[in-house]
Design a protein that fits this description.
By secondary structure, the protein is of the alpha/beta class. It folds into 4 domains: 3-85, no CATH class; 104-297, Malic enzyme, N-terminal domain (Rossmann fold, 3-Layer(aba) Sandwich), CATH 3.40.50.10380; 303-324 and 493-589, NAD(P)-binding Rossmann-like Domain (Rossmann fold), CATH 3.40.50; 325-345 and 359-488, Rossmann fold (3-Layer(aba) Sandwich). 42% of the residues lie in helices and 10% in strands. It has 25 helices and 16 strands. A 7-stranded mixed beta sheet has the order 10-9-8-11-12-13-16, with helices on both faces. It has a 5-stranded parallel beta sheet with strand order 3-5-4-6-7, sandwiched between helices. Strands 1-2 form a two-stranded antiparallel sheet. The longest helix has 21 residues, at 303-323. It is globular and about 75 Å long. The two termini are 22 Å apart. Magnesium ion is lined by residues 280-281, 303-304. Residues 138, 192, 281, 303-304, 445, 470, 489-490 line the site of oxaloacetate ion. Its cofactor is Mg(2+); Mn(2+). Residues 114-295 form the Malic enzyme N-terminal domain. Residues 305-558 form the Malic enzyme NAD-binding domain.
Length: 589
């Protein structure tokens, strides 16, 4: 039997080899299901010549093509005589990368590598995750988005603008890969804490999806980054001659809703019920609405609301080992009442409610939010956006964060406002004055928007703070002691969470899956991590962590009857591992 490739060429049907590990992640070429030593040769049929093979990032191996492969695939003379291997290539590239002093140049070098040799890109990223994460992801990806127009070389992902209205299904069909499993989509209106970057927000879906593969093991060919361009309100971009997006003010209201609706319908029509759509860096008003509107009809996940909530809840559960008590014993104060703030607050309230059987309305009362107008209190209720209303508790109005800290006396202070340098010395000193071990999370990204630095947190609290931040900080020495700050970033959650949904064929996201992911992540914090004051495990072990998160998420999905891949695999951790993409080169003979 033969199956037809979309370009019309024929390849042998890979039969049950096209199903990885007995089930998880499909690959029509059978390539990812083959082990390192198995032979796979789709391109001898689908790729015209050796020259094209060298320019196909999915299959190119550069100098690592063996003598035999060079003969078999018309590569003689197209490469210099030396034959390398992946390890040596990796060593050379890491050496080269480290020569660049400017982090953005490292980012550009990594993007070039991804365009040239995809497996080598992922090999580097997986083997050097702690060093390279800040380059391909927060914080440098933020700078890359700001300068996207000028560093732009080859387009990545799909751009869907107002010009494509009425044609979105056709646009999706232009993408070369057909069996997509996860889409990360942004409209660029709130890129990290950097504001409206319009079409240049594309760096975010691209970066997030490279983590889906590197950290969560989802095949690169199953990942599709999308930017929806409805214009931008960023005057600087509108007057920039190099701006790559639509030069018009953002469409809003019905025009916006119609384009998004066409997109959501086209995606489901083209890829089916089980396609995962991750919303990323939408502005508050659209983020909440889109999630509420589509969560009952699509497999959608908002990383900024739900992913951030899950990672923070994991850190809080872990932190209880250091600060004592249960979550219900703590008092939480947020600076920032947007997607992250209210998302985290809601998940904490839900977890406490599940653990204590108290109603949500009660458990919410230990959680307070401060927005740009001060403490969210009941007297402000009428003028509050709807997503803030459940947090408007009885209290007299308080304008400043410092006064709110003094009035509420929180044990946990969480920054999610996207505004940097707001946890001042006075704020942190106040936290340290009534808490033996204040728990402070400065979550805004990138580093420039962080509420305080790690050094400030440790110094101003006299070394007593338990601290984590959204963007990474180096270890800090304070009075002879070295403190290692944790990184409370949703990158811990979404890759494993997504893998869990995909491998179980889940059709809807349920909040209980977020709780399961939090508990799975918290369970990965080791004794040694705690001894260093860490409430998150290091990223170096992330693929293993992702497999555990995926297993717990899938288990919850089966329990809730939302998983369509039957029968349920017995050992879900092993199953998750068997589904994960490996970047090791294949033999091409
Ligand atoms: O991208 C990150 O580092 C975390 C995130 O989702 C955001 O800040 O919007
Ligand atoms: Mg985000």
């Amino acid at each position: 039997m033969e199956s037809v490739l979309t370009n019309g060429d024929l390849v042998p049907d890979m039969g049950d080899k096209s199903v990885v590990g007995g089930g998880g992640v499909e690959d029509v070429y059978g390539e990812d299901s083959a082990t390192k030593d198995q032979l796979v040769t789709p391109w001898t049929i689908s790729v015209a010549s050796g020259y094209t093979l060298l320019r196909d990032p999915r299959h190119n191996k550069g100098l690592a093509f063996t003598e035999k492969e060079r003969d078999a695939h018309y590569l003689r003379g197209l490469l210099p005589p030396s034959v390398s291997n992946q390890e040596l290539q990796e060593k050379k590239l890491m050496h080269n990368l480290r020569q660049y002093d400017v982090p953005l140049h490292r980012y550009m070098a990594m993007m070039d590598l991804q365009e040239r040799n995809e497996r080598l890109f992922y090999k580097l990223l997986i083997d050097n995750v702690e060093e390279l994460l800040p380059i391909v992801y927060t914080p440098i990806v933020g700078e890359a988005c700001q300068k996207y127009g000028s560093i732009f070389r080859r387009p990545q992902g799909l751009f869907i603008s107002l010009k494509e209205k009425g044609k979105i299904l056709e646009v999706l069909k232009n993408w070369p890969e057909k069996s997509i499993q996860v889409i990360v989509v942004t409209d660029g209106e709130r890129i990290l804490g950097l504001g409206d970057l319009g079409c240049q927000g594309m760096g975010i879906p691209v970066g997030k999806l490279s983590l889906y593969t590197a950290l969560g093991g989802v095949r690169p060919s199953a990942c599709l980054p999308i930017t929806i361009d409805v214009g931008t309100n960023n005057e600087k971009l509108l007057s920039d001659e190099f701006y790559i997006g639509l030069k018009q003010k953002r469409a809003t209201g019905q025009e916006y809703a119609e384009l998004l609706h066409e997109f959501m319908c086209a995606v489901k029509q083209n890829y089916g019920e089980k396609i995962l759509i991750q919303f990323e860096d939408f502005a508050n008003h659209n983020a909440f609405e889109l999630l509420a509107k589509y969560r009952t009809t699509h497999l959608v996940f908002n990383d900024d609301i739900q992913g951030t909530a899950s990672v923070v809840l994991a850190g809080l559960i872990a932190a209880l080992k250091l600060v004592g008590g249960t979550l219900a014993d703590h008092t939480f104060l947020f600076l920032g009442a947007g997607e992250a703030g209210t998302g985290i607050a809601e998940l904490i309230a839900l977890e406490i409610s599940k653990k204590t059987n108290a109603p949500l309305e009660e458990t919410r009362k230990k959680i307070w939010l401060v927005d740009s107008k001060g403490l969210v209190v009941s007297s402000r209720k009428e003028s509050l956006q709807h997503f803030k209303r459940s947090w408007a508790h009885e209290h007299e109005p308080v304008k400043e964060l410092l006064d709110a800290v003094k009035a509420i006396k929180p044990t946990v202070l969480i920054g999610t406002s996207g505004v940097g340098k707001t946890f001042t010395k006075d704020v942190i000193k106040a936290m340290a004055s009534f808490n033996e071990k204040p728990l402070i999370l400065a979550l805004s990204n990138p580093t420039s928007q962080s509420e305080c630095t790690a050094e400030e947190a440790y110094t101003w609290s006299g070394g007593r703070v338990i601290f984590a931040s959204g963007s990474p900080f180096d270890p800090v020495e304070h009075e002879g002691k070295v403190f290692v700050p944790g990184q409370a970033n949703n990158a811990y959650i979404f890759p494993g969470f997504g893998l869990g949904l995909i491998m179980s064929g889940t059709i809807r996201v349920h909040d209980d899956m977020l709780l399961a992911a939090s508990e799975a992540l918290a369970a990965q914090v080791t004794k040694e991590n705690y001894e260093k004051g860490l409430i998150y495990p290091p990223f170096s072990n992330i693929r293993n962590i992702s497999a555990h998160i995926a297993a717990k998420v899938a288990a919850k999905s089966y329990e809730l009857g939302l998983a369509s891949r039957l029968p349920r695999p017995k050992d879900l951790v092993k199953f998750a591992e068997s589904c994960m993409y490996s970047p090791v080169y294949r033999n091409y003979l």
